[in-house]
Design a protein that fits this description.
By secondary structure, this protein is an alpha/beta fold. The protein folds into two domains: about 5-30 and about 295-405, Aspartate Aminotransferase, domain 1, CATH 3.90.1150.10; about 40-290, Type I PLP-dependent aspartate aminotransferase-like (Major domain) (Aspartate Aminotransferase, domain 2, 3-Layer(aba) Sandwich). About 40% of the residues lie in helices and about 15% in strands. The structure holds pyridoxal-5'-phosphate. The site of pyridoxal-5'-phosphate has 13 residues, from helix 4. Pyridoxal-5'-phosphate (PLP) binds near residues 122 and 199.
């Protein structure tokens, strides 16, 4: 049995709307995905029927909310095959998860210690490490790409030295769709004693992630790209890596004992969750994962791959069009440029046809420099997109091209 796309679509109220008089075609999933009723309802039902602050209370609503919140943690744990709920920390997004790790590692950095990044990282996985360069004298080492957008694994192996503190690389590029050989990246880094953080903000929705099989020390997810809400992200860490990391923010919940002249900290995950966490958002993320788990994952992947391939095949016939990133096994994220046309103009004209694509540097300026462009247009596909939408996109793109050239 294959995916019933009409049934999928009927669960996303927003897909019923029009944009500029046309049915919405939403191809901006890599920036943020739409949310099904299951997610919207989970959050509003919780707020309507059983809402209170978590953990601290002894009353019924506090206990019910805590149960739902901790249930979401267990859902995330199973989703990425983490060993225990304590390995899952809720943050306000992917960005905060990376900042949490960088800030902690920063306290252990000596001048000259090295941090290995790839040139296709999102700014969220670059700027926190720049902080360590500016503040602690860390040296950033950049791994280049091969022509097709694959990570250059030879250069990667050469970048590792006994001074490498951490390798922070994407599991799937938000611009090129490249899927990195994460297990290999981890095993090489561990040979030199470096830790590895994998940015799974894109991979989380398109790959079947198994953090134990990958062997990484840290893995980062974001809620709003997995059909969940904004305001919640996930940091997975091994118990050993989390224990070695100092706390990020100070406040309620993350402490054990606070006195006038000393403080001791709670164990993970609470050590890293100062203050009131994103309660409803975490519950919404749990609902998104439960919802996604309701489908056969290989069928979802196949559907997205079919959309992606149809778009690639059609774009190949467009004169002057260049697709950025052709790595084997890449995910359904399609960046392109058309000679003589600014990507912003493409996105604006497509919007007139109700089609949402992104144009810009996609928070990946070092990658734009590497590609020799200032921006690209990007169509990214999700579970609710259809072949007809891909065809309408190509047709509109051809019209836009003839108007702009
Ligand atoms: C979206 C994204 C981020 C940032 O996640 P937020 O939750 O939006 O902060 C980081 N890395 C990649 C690869 C992304 O696509």
């Amino acid at each position: 049995m294959s995916l019933d796309i009409n049934h999928v679509r009927s669960q996303f109220p927003i897909l019923g709307r029009e944009v500029n008089g046309e049915p919405l075609i939403y191809f901006d999933n890599a920036a943020s995905a739409q949310k099904p009723n299951a997610v919207l309802d989970a959050m509003s039902d919780q707020a309507r029927t059983a809402y209170a602050n978590v953990h601290r209370g002894l009353h019924t609503l506090a206990n019910e909310t805590t149960e739902a919140f901790e249930g979401a943690r267990s859902t995330v744990q199973r989703f990425i095959n983490a060993p225990a709920p304590a390995n899952i920390i809720f943050t306000k997004g992917g960005t905060e998860a990376i900042n949490l790790v960088a800030s902690g590692i920063g306290q252990q950095i000596e001048p000259g210690d090295e941090i290995v990044l790839s040139v296709m990282e999102h700014h969220s996985n670059i700027v926190p490490w720049h902080f360590l360069r500016e503040r602690h004298g860390a040296v950033l080492k950049w791994v280049p790409l091969l022509e097709d957008g694959t990570l250059d694994m030879e250069a990667y192996a050469e970048a590792l030295t006994p001074r490498t503190k951490i390798v922070a690389v994407t599991h799937m590029s938000n611009v090129l769709g490249t899927v990195t050989d994460a297990a290999k990246i981890v095993s090489l880094a561990h040979e030199t004693g470096a830790r590895v953080l994998l940015d799974g903000c894109q991979a989380g929705v398109h790959l079947d992630v198994d953090v134990r099989a990958l062997g990484c020390d840290f893995y980062v997810l974001t809620g709003h790209k997995i059909y969940g809400p904004t305001g919640v992200g996930v940091l997975y860490g091994t118990s050993e890596a989390l224990d070695a990391l100092p706390p990020y923010q100070g406040g309620g919940e993350m402490i054990e004992i606070v006195e006038q002249d000393r403080v001791t900290y709670n164990a993970a995950p609470h050590k890293f969750e100062a203050g009131t966490p994103p309660i409803l958002q975490a519950i919404g993320l749990g609902a998104a994962i439960d919802w996604l788990n309701g489908f056969a994952f290989d069928q979802v992947i196949q559907h997205e791959e079919d959309l992606h391939q149809r778009a690639i095949d059609a774009l190949a016939t467009v004169n002057g069009l260049r697709v950025h990133g052709q790595a084997p096994g890449k995910g359904p994220v399609l960046s392109f440029s058309i000679e003589g046309i600014h990507p912003h103009d493409i996105a604006q004209l497509l919007d007139r046809y109700g089609i949402a694509v992104r144009a810009g540097h996609h928070c990946a300026q070092p990658l734009m420099t590497h590609l020799g462009v200032s921006a690209t247009a990007r169509a990214s596909f999700g579970i609710y997109n259809t072949m007809e939408e891909v065809d309408a996109f190509i047709e509109a793109l051809l019209k836009a091209r003839s108007m702009l050239l």
